[in-house]
Amino acid sequence: MEKVVKFTTCLIGLMLVSLLVQNVTQAKMTKLRTTTLAESPSVVSIKTVERNLDCMAMNIYREAGYEPFEGKVAVAQVTMNRVKSGRFGNDVCGVVYQKNIIMEKVVCQFSWACDSAAKARPVNHAAYQESYEVAKKVLLEGFSLSVLKDALYYHAAYVNPRWPLEKIGQIGQHIFYKPKSNSKDI
């Protein structure tokens, strides 16, 4: 009789624990299903991550494909700074392919994005692969250059657009800028 009571008590305890685990799991799954990306920006699908990696890698390749590692990181960091600023696009692809209309002409934030031929597959696979690795470091690992924490703009060193911005410095063949504290950018 004593064994039957112990067995019954253990069986009831096991059933209660099982029921508790099931209810907790179900509650957590329901919460995950109803949580939106806006409520929890850390919850991002793999497809979204891959899309952003592709956009970032292509931007690095087209803007700094033959630059040293730091030059590639710098271009990626400006792209990320623009995403974080909320003024250029909601995600990496939105920033990379952002277009404006100025005096009835379509202008891309990154000039290659307006060139349909440049959107084709990369010609130099090794340079693209290196750009992709840099994109992973910046997007997934948060790698950055502290000197560019406020950089939102850059241009090639061989041009002089005379922007009313504060020059931060030069990395490779690009000169980087941040908005002046009393200006509204360019």
Q: Assign an overall shape.
A: elongated
Instruction: Identify the CATH class of the largest domain.
Output: Mainly Alpha
**Percent helix range:** 40-55%
Largest sheet, order of strands side by side?
3-5-4
Report the sheet-strand fraction: 5-15%
Q: Helical element count?
A: 5
Uncertain stretches: 35-40
Q: What is the CATH T-level topology of the largest domain?
A: Arc Repressor Mutant, subunit A
Number of domains: 2
Which whole number gives the mean pLDDT?
A: 85
- What is the N-to-C succession of helices and strands? HHHHEEHEEE
Which structural class do you get from the secondary structure elements? alpha+beta
Main beta sheet: strand number and arrangement? Answer: 3 strands, antiparallel
Q: What separation lies between the terminal Cα atoms?
A: 87 Å
Examine the secondary-structure arrangement and name the CATH architecture of the largest domain: Orthogonal Bundle
| DSSP strand tally | 5
Note the topology.
Layout: H1 2-34, H2 46-64, H3 69-85, H4 92-96, E1 99-102, E2 105-108, H5 125-141, E3 153-156, E4 166-171, E5 174-178
Antiparallel strand pairs: 1-2, 3-5, 4-5
Fold and architecture overview:
It is a single chain. The model is unreliable at 35-40 (pLDDT under 50). Strands 3-5-4 form a three-stranded antiparallel β-sheet. The chain has helices at 2-34, 46-64, 69-85, 92-96, 125-141, and strands spanning 99-102, 105-108, 153-156, 166-171, 174-178. It has five helices and five strands. The protein is of the alpha+beta class. The chain is elongated. The N and C termini lie far apart (87 Å). The chain is 49% helix and 12% strand. It folds into two domains: 1-43; 46-141, Arc Repressor Mutant, subunit A (Orthogonal Bundle), CATH 1.10.10.
